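Lab notebook, bench 4. We co-purified these components, and the gel suggests they stay together. Before we commit to crystallization screens, I want a quick structural picture of the whole thing.
Request: model the full complex, all chains together.
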Amino acid sequence: MSSGLGVLFRVSTWGESHGPGVGVVIDGCPPGTPLTDQDVQAELDRRRPGQSKITTPRRENDKAEILSGVLNGVTLGTPIAIQVRNEDQRSSAYVEMESAYRPSHADYTYEAKYGIRAVAGGGRSSARETVGRVAAGAVAKKVLQASLASYDCVAYVKSVHAIQAGARSQSMSLVELRGIVEGNIVRTNDPVAAQAMIALIEQMRNQGNSVGGVIECVVRGVEPGLGEPVFDKLEADLAKAMLSLPATKGFEIGSGFAGSLLTGVEHNDEFFSENGRIRTRTNRSGGIQGGISNGEDIVFRVAFKPTATVLVGQQTVTKTGSPTTLAARGRHDPCVLPRAVPIVEAMVHLVVVDHWLRQRALRG
Amino acid sequence: MSSGLGVLFRVSTWGESHGPGVGVVIDGCPPGTPLTDQDVQAELDRRRPGQSKITTPRRENDKAEILSGVLNGVTLGTPIAIQVRNEDQRSSAYVEMESAYRPSHADYTYEAKYGIRAVAGGGRSSARETVGRVAAGAVAKKVLQASLASYDCVAYVKSVHAIQAGARSQSMSLVELRGIVEGNIVRTNDPVAAQAMIALIEQMRNQGNSVGGVIECVVRGVEPGLGEPVFDKLEADLAKAMLSLPATKGFEIGSGFAGSLLTGVEHNDEFFSENGRIRTRTNRSGGIQGGISNGEDIVFRVAFKPTATVLVGQQTVTKTGSPTTLAARGRHDPCVLPRAVPIVEAMVHLVVVDHWLRQRALRG
Amino acid sequence: MSSGLGVLFRVSTWGESHGPGVGVVIDGCPPGTPLTDQDVQAELDRRRPGQSKITTPRRENDKAEILSGVLNGVTLGTPIAIQVRNEDQRSSAYVEMESAYRPSHADYTYEAKYGIRAVAGGGRSSARETVGRVAAGAVAKKVLQASLASYDCVAYVKSVHAIQAGARSQSMSLVELRGIVEGNIVRTNDPVAAQAMIALIEQMRNQGNSVGGVIECVVRGVEPGLGEPVFDKLEADLAKAMLSLPATKGFEIGSGFAGSLLTGVEHNDEFFSENGRIRTRTNRSGGIQGGISNGEDIVFRVAFKPTATVLVGQQTVTKTGSPTTLAARGRHDPCVLPRAVPIVEAMVHLVVVDHWLRQRALRG
Amino acid sequence: MSSGLGVLFRVSTWGESHGPGVGVVIDGCPPGTPLTDQDVQAELDRRRPGQSKITTPRRENDKAEILSGVLNGVTLGTPIAIQVRNEDQRSSAYVEMESAYRPSHADYTYEAKYGIRAVAGGGRSSARETVGRVAAGAVAKKVLQASLASYDCVAYVKSVHAIQAGARSQSMSLVELRGIVEGNIVRTNDPVAAQAMIALIEQMRNQGNSVGGVIECVVRGVEPGLGEPVFDKLEADLAKAMLSLPATKGFEIGSGFAGSLLTGVEHNDEFFSENGRIRTRTNRSGGIQGGISNGEDIVFRVAFKPTATVLVGQQTVTKTGSPTTLAARGRHDPCVLPRAVPIVEAMVHLVVVDHWLRQRALRG
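Here is the predicted assembly.
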C-alpha cells in the first residue's frame, strides 16, 4: 500500500523500470471531462528521456494508451487506466549493481524493506515511475481547466547548482511565462541564465558528475477555500507531493525559510479589497493561510539534490558487506531538473483536483 | 474529513480554541503497550501556555483525561480517547475580530471555505488544536519505545530570527542533547545562543512584534526499511506532518536546499560496513533513501514564520470588504518555537509509528 | 484501525462498556447544518436501556454532550465530538467471566485478537458501543434532511422468533408508519402482532432465555445516482453497516433470498414514466440497481440472532481450557430488536450521507 | 473513487465491457510470494465465458498478463498490474439499448449518476468487471497459502431456483469437496441435484428466460483473531464484498436468517477444548464472534437474483421517458451461479488477506 494518492481523485501507479511497462489507474475522475490521448501524450513528451542534449540519451517514445474510462473523447466517471510500454531496456548495464549498492540510490533500502528487489534500472525506485504521475496529472489538469475558469500552473528552474535565474516578473501572464520556460531546454524563466545552466550541465556530463538545483512553481486561479485545516492543509499536501518525487530534499512555500528572518509586522500580508474581491497586498503566505487557499498565487519551491548516478568510482559495499568500488555505466541525466518541471506541475494538478473535489463535496 | 492522520495508527483530533475542550481519538494502537495519564501529561506540559516568561501568559493547565482504550495502565488495542477541557477563555478579546480579518491568520480563508467560523481565539485554526497531536504523539512514542529498542527523537530550536545556534555535536547522545535543550526555556541546543534568543523574544514582545525561526530534529533508532516508496515516502510523510503545523513555511531533510549546491560526487553518501551493519560515511540523505529509512539518523529542519498576532495596528478589511485597521489585544506568543519543539516531536512519533506498523504488516 | 466508517462523513467511535464513557468524533460534516443537543438526545433516548418493560432494567440516562464543531446551534464544518459518560456500572457482576469465556460472546475472540480484554460488560464488544453510532446518525440525518427535501427512513421489527408482523401498507406515509412503530414498545409495524411479541419476550426473560428476529427498513427520498459501482455499491455499504451491528446474522435487499425463487421474466422491474420521473412498476431491486439508487424506496431486512446472554447454565471453558459451566447474572435484554431499530436507522443515515457527499463531489 | 477495495492489500479494478480491456492493480502485496501467470490464469479460466453448455456462448480467452510487481516468479512488494484484453465484442447487439433502459440493469442508474454511459455490453456495469477481482483474488490466495498453513476456501451452488443441493458432509475435506464441485458444470456440491439444475438452466435458456439461486462458501484455516471489532467486522467486510458482486440480493452467515427462529439457549455455541485448542461444539456463529474469527469454519451464503438479461420482450422507457418494449438479443448466461463460484472465492481471499495483514500489523 504505497503507490496510491488522493482521497477522491485516487491515483494508483505501477511498473518497474525494466519490466513490461508502467502506468496508472485514476479512480474518481468526474464524468463528462473532455480527454484525448494527445492531452496525456503532450505532457509525457515533456517528461520523456532523450528530448534534448542535456537529458539522458536513452530513447523511449513513452507512447500512452488509454485503456478505460473514456469514450468518444469524454470521461465516463469510471476508472481511467493509462499504460506506457517500456522499450529501451539494456539490463546488461546493471549486472554489477546486482551485488553492490549504489551510493545514495535506493538499492540498499529497497533490499532492507522488501528482502528482494528488481535490480535493472532501479526497478520501482527508478524515476520512470513518474510516467504514471505525469499521465494522471494531465487528466487532473483537464478536469481543473473545465471547472476553474482561470486555473493554470507553471513550474520552472530557479537555479542549477549556484547559477540563479533572475526573478520572475510578477505582472507576466502564465501563458507568457510558459512560453519563456518552454523556450529553453533547461526550462528556466531566465533565458540568459539558461545558457550558463546548459553549459554547466554539459560540463558535468562530460565529467561523469551531476548537479541539482531548485524548481519554483506558480499556481494561479485556485479559488479561495481549497485545503483542509489541520492535517490535510493544502501546503502540507503539496509538500508531501513534492517530497514524494525522486531526488527532492526540501520544500518551502511563500516566504519559506527566508521568512524566518522577518518580524511579524514585516511578514504579515495585509488585506485589501479589489473590485469586490478580498486580496492581500503582499504574498508571503504563498497563497495559503491556515491550510486553505486565499485566492492569491500559490508559490512554492522544491530543492533537488544532484543526480546520484555518477560515472566516477565510489566506495560502497556488496550485499554481504564487503567493500568495493562502483562507477555507473548506464546512461543518465546529469541534472534532473529540466525533466522534473512537468512532474512538479503534474503533482500540483493531482493535489489541487483532489482538494477541489473535497471542497465541492463539502459545500456543493 | 480534515482532522485525521495515519493509515494504521489513525489519529482524529477535535476541538475549538474557545469551545468546551479539545481532544483526540487514536484508533489502531497496538494492545499491551504500557500507558499512563502521566505519559501524556508530561508531553502536554512541554506544550502548555504560560510555561515560561517567553511564552504567552495565558494560564491553562491542559489536564489530560484518558477516557477509553486503556485498562490498568496498559492499552487494550481499542480506540484511545484523550480529552483536555478548555479553561482560560476570554472571548471578549476577540469582539472586533468578528467583523475584520486578522492579517496572515486563517480568518478569511475559514470563512471562504465554510461560510461560517468560530471567531473567538481562531476556533479550530488556533494552535490549541495541537493539544490532540501532542497527546497522540505521547502514545505513539510509548509504542515505538516498546518495540524499537533504541528509538528516540529530539527537536530543538536552530535559529530565532537571525540568531543561529551552533551545530549540534554529532557524537552527543540524544539523552545528553535533550538535557541541554530542555535546560533552557527557548529549547535550543546552544545554551549561549539561548540567551540572545531569549533577549530578542522579550524585546519583540515588548514591541508587540514577533519572530520566527527554524527547528531541527534528530530521530535515532529507526530501523532500515520504514517508509513506502512512491507517494508515502518517509520524508514525504514527515514533510506533510510538519507543513500541517501552524506557522510552518518550509521543510528540508539531510542536505536540504543547500544540497543543491553540491555536485553528485560531493553529495553521495558512500556505504561502508560496521560491525556487520551497513552504514553511510556521510548523511546528506538525512537517514532516508528512496523514501525508505536506511538506519542512519533522520535529520530535518522546519521553518516557522513569525507569529501572525502582533499588537501593532495593521491594514485589513471587514467581511464586507471595507478597509479598517486592526491591532491584536489578546495574549500571544511572540515566538512559537519553544512550544513548537514538543509538537514537532509528536508529529515525528505519529509518522514513524504508522510506518512501523505498515512495515510490520508487510514483512511480519 | 477498526472503529472508523465513511470516506467523507468520517465517524470514529470510542469507549468501553465500563470505562469512563463512550463517544464519537465526526469529521467531514458540512458546515451550516442546524444541530442541537436535543437532536442527538432524542435518538439516544430511543436506544437507551431501561426504556420499557421488555428492555434491560439497567438505568442509564445516556446524556449526550456536544464538545466541538457546533456554535449557536449550527455546525462549523469542523469535527463534531459527542460524548456520553457511563453511569450504572456494576463490574462485580462480571467477576467470574474474567476466567471463563461466555458462549457466543466475543470474550474468546477478543482475547485471541488482542491478548488482553476489558472483561466488565464486554468492554468494547458491548452493544454500548452503538451509542456513538446513534449520536453520529442523528447528525447525519440532520444533514440529509437539510439537503434532500423528502429524505426519511423508518425501521421496524418484522418478526420476533416465529411471530411475523403483517406486511406494511405500501401507500402509508413514513410519518404514519413511524407513528405506528413508535406506538408500541417492541417497535413493530403491526400493533396486533406487537402484543404477541411482547408476551413472548417477557416469557423469555422469565425463563432466562432470549429471542431474535428480523428488522425491516424503508428509506425514502434518496435521489437517483447515489452509490458507487463496483466495490462501494450502495447495497454493499448498507450490508456492511448492518453486519457491523452486534448480533446480526444476515442482510437482504429487495427480493432478497426469496428472489432466487423467481425467473428473470418474473423478477425484472419494468420501467415506466410518471410525471416526468422514471420509475419502476415493481421494486424487487429494493431501490438500488447496479449499486446505484434508482429513486424508488430502498427496502432491506436484517436478521438478528437471539441475545447471547442467557441466565441458564452453559458449558464453556476457562482461559486455560478447563471445562466449566457459566450462567449470566448481569441484567440483559431478552430481545435486542426494539432497541436495535434506532441503531439500524442511524447506520442508514451514515451510509447515505457519505454517498450523498461523494456524489456531490463527483457531479457538483 | 469507487473501484478500490482493501486497507493494506489494496485492489483497484478498471475496464469497460467493450473497451480495450479490463484489469487490476494490487498495491500492498507482501514481497517474496511465489506467483506465476498460471496461478492467475487458472482462476480466470473458471470464470471465463463459454466454458460449458450452460454458460454464455461468448468466446473470450481472457488471457492474463502480469505487467509489474513480479520478477522470476516471485512478488517484489511493489504494485502488481494484471491486464486482460477484450476480444469478442459485438457492439451491434446493443444498438437499441442506446435509447432504452433495460429493466433491472444499471442503464438508468448509471445515466442518473454520471450523465453519460458506455452503452455496449453495459460498460463498467458488466460482470466483465469481475475479471480484475478474480485475478487479484488469485494473488491473495497465494499470499494466504504461503502464510496460513491450512488456509482454503471452497464455494458451491447450494440451490438453483427451487432445486436444493443436499447438505455438504461436515467431515469432508475441502480438497474432496472441491473435487465434487468442480466435477459438474453447475458447480454444486450435490452431483445428483446437478443434473436437475443443468436441465432447468437449459430449459430457461431455451425459453429466453433465466434463474438465480444461492451459493454457499466454506473458509477453513483462518486463525482466531482476524477481523476488526466495530465497523470492519470480518462478517461485515464479507457481506460488503458479496453484495458488491453483480446480481446479489442477500448475505447470511452461520445460522443466518433461520437463526432468528432459535432461542438463545438453542443458538449459543458452547466452547470446549480439543488438543489444547479452544473450539465450539456447534457453529451457528459461522466462524466469527464479535466480528473476529474464532478458528472454526467460516460459512456463509449469498443469494443471486435471476439474470436480468432475458430474450422476452419487456416494458420499459427510452431516455426521454417514452414507453417502449425491449427484448435482449445479446448472448447471455441464463444462470450466473456456475461462473460466480470462483468470483465468490476471490472476494473471500481479498477480504481475508487484508484482515490477515491488518492483524499482523497489530500483533506482529
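The longest strand of chain D covers residues 152-160. Worth comparing against the SEC data before the next meeting. DSSP finds eight helices and 18 strands in chain D.
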